[in-house]
Amino acid sequence: MPGDSVDTISVSQLTYRHNPDTEPSLIDVDLLLPRGSRTIVVGANGAGKSTLLQILAGKRLVSTPGAHIFVKDRDVFRDSPPGVTFLGTEWAMNPVVRGDIVVSAFLDSVGGYRHKERRDKLLDILDVDLDWHMHNISDGERRRVQLCFGLMVDWDVLLLDEVTVDLDVLVRDDLLNFLKADSEARGATILCKLHATHIFDGLNNFPTHVAHMRLGTFVTQPAAWPVTSDSALVSQFAPGTTLYNVALQWLKEDRDNRQELEKNGRKARGARRDQV
Prior knowledge:
AAA+_ATPase, alpha/beta, 4-stranded antiparallel sheet, ABC transporter domain-containing protein, ATP binding, 2 domains, nucleotide-binding, ABC_transporter-like_ATP-bd
């Protein structure tokens, strides 16, 4: 329940609509994540993963009666918790960070000099050139600057929305090793969304929990990872199954579920072969 100090993130009875006259993006979501956990949420596009992360970050207001959304024992909207960092994909598209400003000046302007040790460690991990001009670098390089900017201040809860998608394999691996070590050393909690199956390759040792969302609800609540003989996931997967194969199976199930709904009246995707 909300207020339980064991759980860093505690959500119950959460339903959310982007507009009053649209179908809900989240439906009666319950979620408990313990302190120090690292949870990966798997699900197809439109499952509600980004919306959930944005709500936990306080970026979308929830007016559903009875909904409880607590982070670090504090109501996200009425008593905003400190130490929560949200990193999303929209940052790289912001005109402010696409202007002609040198990376070193940009980091100084947001207080990087106050966090020199962590900043410098991240600059090395992310292989950032301090002389880059923000308007003249690739999306992947801009993403590295975002990660340095967002992670150089100590965080207690980290909400990641697809921000590793632009990184090359080596930088991504070094970053995830840093985040894992940081989480373990400080008991910090990570919740991240990934949906592209190639991203899961090589992630087996990162999460402590995995979960599956479909059409606004949890099909599989956060379950301890990896799969073992006494795991909650053993009814679905054999012990030792890789995260890549878990994600692949869940996404195939999502597609099959959507296609079954389409047979029963849901708007269909794909080609319209009955039309010229």
